[in-house]
Amino acid sequence: MQEEVENRTVNLAISTTKLTFRTIVNGYNAWKRHHQAKAAQKSAQMPLGKQSIKELIGQNQGVSSIPIEKTDLKGFEQVARKYGVDYAITKDQNVIPPKYTVFFKAKDADALTSAFEEFTNRKLKAKEKPSVLEQLNKLKELVAAILPDKVRHKSQERDL
Protein backbone atom coordinates (compact mmCIF):
# COMPACT_ATOMS: atom_id res chain seq x y z
CA MET A 1 0.00 0.00 0.00
CA GLN A 2 2.79 2.41 0.93
CA GLU A 3 4.60 1.66 -2.33
CA GLU A 4 1.48 2.36 -4.39
CA VAL A 5 1.00 5.76 -2.70
CA GLU A 6 4.63 6.66 -3.36
CA ASN A 7 4.29 5.69 -7.06
CA ARG A 8 1.14 7.82 -7.44
CA THR A 9 2.85 10.77 -5.74
CA VAL A 10 5.83 10.54 -8.05
CA ASN A 11 3.47 10.19 -11.07
CA LEU A 12 1.55 13.29 -9.97
CA ALA A 13 4.75 15.30 -9.54
CA ILE A 14 6.03 14.30 -12.99
CA SER A 15 2.73 14.99 -14.78
CA THR A 16 2.35 18.46 -13.16
CA THR A 17 5.94 19.31 -14.11
CA LYS A 18 5.22 18.32 -17.72
CA LEU A 19 2.00 20.36 -17.66
CA THR A 20 3.78 23.43 -16.30
CA PHE A 21 6.59 23.19 -18.86
CA ARG A 22 4.10 22.76 -21.74
CA THR A 23 2.11 25.74 -20.49
CA ILE A 24 5.23 27.93 -20.42
CA VAL A 25 6.25 26.83 -23.93
CA ASN A 26 2.74 27.43 -25.30
CA GLY A 27 2.61 30.86 -23.66
CA TYR A 28 6.00 31.80 -25.15
CA ASN A 29 4.91 30.65 -28.62
CA ALA A 30 1.68 32.66 -28.36
CA TRP A 31 3.64 35.78 -27.33
CA LYS A 32 6.11 35.26 -30.18
CA ARG A 33 3.30 34.95 -32.77
CA HIS A 34 1.65 38.09 -31.41
CA HIS A 35 4.95 40.01 -31.48
CA GLN A 36 5.69 38.95 -35.08
CA ALA A 37 2.18 39.87 -36.22
CA LYS A 38 2.51 43.28 -34.60
CA ALA A 39 5.91 43.86 -36.27
CA ALA A 40 4.52 42.82 -39.65
CA GLN A 41 1.58 45.19 -39.24
CA LYS A 42 3.90 48.04 -38.30
CA SER A 43 6.12 47.49 -41.33
CA ALA A 44 3.10 47.32 -43.64
CA GLN A 45 2.00 50.84 -42.66
CA MET A 46 2.98 53.67 -44.96
CA PRO A 47 5.52 56.16 -43.59
CA LEU A 48 4.23 59.57 -42.55
CA GLY A 49 5.79 63.02 -42.61
CA LYS A 50 9.31 63.50 -43.92
CA GLN A 51 10.52 60.63 -46.10
CA SER A 52 12.64 59.88 -49.13
CA ILE A 53 11.37 60.54 -52.64
CA LYS A 54 11.38 56.81 -53.33
CA GLU A 55 9.03 56.14 -50.38
CA LEU A 56 6.83 59.08 -51.34
CA ILE A 57 6.41 57.95 -54.94
CA GLY A 58 5.95 54.33 -53.83
CA GLN A 59 2.64 55.19 -52.17
CA ASN A 60 0.92 55.15 -55.59
CA GLN A 61 -0.57 58.60 -55.33
CA GLY A 62 0.12 61.75 -57.28
CA VAL A 63 3.08 63.83 -56.13
CA SER A 64 3.29 67.61 -56.43
CA SER A 65 6.32 69.83 -55.97
CA ILE A 66 7.26 73.45 -55.27
CA PRO A 67 10.62 75.23 -55.08
CA ILE A 68 11.41 76.66 -51.65
CA GLU A 69 14.15 78.75 -50.07
CA LYS A 70 16.50 77.16 -47.54
CA THR A 71 15.45 79.65 -44.86
CA ASP A 72 11.86 78.38 -44.99
CA LEU A 73 12.53 74.64 -44.58
CA LYS A 74 11.91 74.43 -40.82
CA GLY A 75 8.71 76.47 -41.09
CA PHE A 76 7.41 74.22 -43.84
CA GLU A 77 8.28 71.06 -41.87
CA GLN A 78 6.33 72.30 -38.82
CA VAL A 79 3.22 73.06 -40.86
CA ALA A 80 3.46 69.80 -42.82
CA ARG A 81 3.66 67.74 -39.61
CA LYS A 82 0.72 69.64 -38.15
CA TYR A 83 -1.54 68.83 -41.11
CA GLY A 84 -0.25 65.31 -41.79
CA VAL A 85 1.28 66.07 -45.16
CA ASP A 86 3.83 63.58 -46.50
CA TYR A 87 6.83 65.33 -48.02
CA ALA A 88 10.38 64.88 -49.28
CA ILE A 89 12.97 67.63 -49.66
CA THR A 90 15.65 67.53 -52.36
CA LYS A 91 18.61 69.81 -52.95
CA ASP A 92 19.75 70.67 -56.47
CA GLN A 93 23.48 71.40 -56.16
CA ASN A 94 24.02 72.13 -59.84
CA VAL A 95 22.69 75.66 -59.34
CA ILE A 96 24.48 78.31 -57.29
CA PRO A 97 23.05 78.98 -54.71
CA PRO A 98 21.57 75.48 -54.20
CA LYS A 99 17.88 75.16 -55.01
CA TYR A 100 15.54 73.16 -52.75
CA THR A 101 12.43 71.42 -54.02
CA VAL A 102 9.69 69.99 -51.82
CA PHE A 103 7.70 67.03 -53.12
CA PHE A 104 4.48 66.50 -51.21
CA LYS A 105 1.16 64.71 -51.07
CA ALA A 106 -1.72 64.42 -48.63
CA LYS A 107 -4.64 62.04 -48.31
CA ASP A 108 -7.02 64.96 -48.11
CA ALA A 109 -6.83 67.92 -50.50
CA ASP A 110 -8.27 70.23 -47.83
CA ALA A 111 -5.39 69.40 -45.48
CA LEU A 112 -2.93 70.25 -48.22
CA THR A 113 -4.54 73.60 -49.02
CA SER A 114 -4.82 74.47 -45.31
CA ALA A 115 -1.15 73.64 -44.79
CA PHE A 116 -0.02 75.87 -47.65
CA GLU A 117 -2.32 78.70 -46.59
CA GLU A 118 -0.84 78.64 -43.10
CA PHE A 119 2.69 78.42 -44.47
CA THR A 120 2.22 81.42 -46.77
CA ASN A 121 0.51 83.40 -44.00
CA ARG A 122 3.44 82.75 -41.68
CA LYS A 123 5.86 83.81 -44.39
CA LEU A 124 3.95 87.05 -45.10
CA LYS A 125 3.69 87.91 -41.39
CA ALA A 126 7.44 87.40 -40.99
CA LYS A 127 8.10 89.85 -43.84
CA GLU A 128 5.75 92.46 -42.33
CA LYS A 129 7.43 92.38 -38.91
CA PRO A 130 10.30 94.83 -38.52
CA SER A 131 13.71 93.44 -37.67
CA VAL A 132 14.67 93.53 -33.99
CA LEU A 133 18.16 94.73 -34.92
CA GLU A 134 16.72 97.61 -36.93
CA GLN A 135 14.55 98.63 -33.98
CA LEU A 136 17.54 98.43 -31.64
CA ASN A 137 19.64 100.63 -33.93
CA LYS A 138 16.84 103.22 -34.10
CA LEU A 139 16.61 103.28 -30.32
CA LYS A 140 20.39 103.69 -30.05
CA GLU A 141 20.28 106.67 -32.38
CA LEU A 142 17.40 108.17 -30.42
CA VAL A 143 19.26 107.82 -27.11
CA ALA A 144 22.43 109.24 -28.68
CA ALA A 145 20.48 112.27 -29.90
CA ILE A 146 18.91 112.88 -26.48
CA LEU A 147 21.95 112.16 -24.27
CA PRO A 148 25.15 112.45 -26.33
CA ASP A 149 27.53 112.44 -23.33
CA LYS A 150 26.00 109.25 -21.83
CA VAL A 151 26.58 107.09 -24.90
CA ARG A 152 29.79 105.09 -24.80
CA HIS A 153 31.56 104.12 -27.96
CA LYS A 154 33.72 101.04 -28.20
CA SER A 155 36.54 102.90 -29.86
CA GLN A 156 36.77 105.31 -26.88
CA GLU A 157 36.87 102.43 -24.40
CA ARG A 158 39.71 100.69 -26.25
CA ASP A 159 41.90 103.79 -26.30
CA LEU A 160 41.88 104.06 -22.51
Query: What is the CATH topology classification name of the largest domain?
Result: Alpha-Beta Plaits
How is the main sheet built? 3 strands, antiparallel
In which order are the strands of the major sheet placed? 1-3-2
Q: Total number of helical segments?
A: 6
pLDDT < 50 runs, ≥5 residues: none
Number of domains: 2
Protein name: PcfB family protein
Organism: Roseburia inulinivorans DSM 16841
Pfam family, one: DUF3801
What report would you give on this structure?
The protein has 160 residues and is mainly alpha-helical. It folds into two domains: 38 residues; 93 residues, Alpha-Beta Plaits. 62% of the residues lie in helices and 12% in strands. The chain is built from six helices and three strands. Strands 1-3-2 form a three-stranded antiparallel sheet, covered by helices on one side. It is elongated and about 120 Å long. The mean pLDDT is 78. Pfam families: DUF3801.
Give the SSE layout.
Layout lengths: L1 H43 L8 H5 L6 E5 L4 H11 L2 E7 L6 E7 L3 H20 L3 H15 L7 H6 L1
Antiparallel strand pairs: 1-3, 2-3
Short characterization:
With 160 residues, the chain is mainly α. The chain is built from six helices and three strands; from the N terminus they run ααβαββααα. The protein has two domains: 1-38; 51-143, 2-Layer Sandwich (Alpha-Beta Plaits).
What brief labels describe this structure?
single chain, 160 residues, mainly alpha, Alpha-Beta Plaits, 2 domains, 3-stranded antiparallel sheet, 6 helices, 12% strand, PcfB family protein
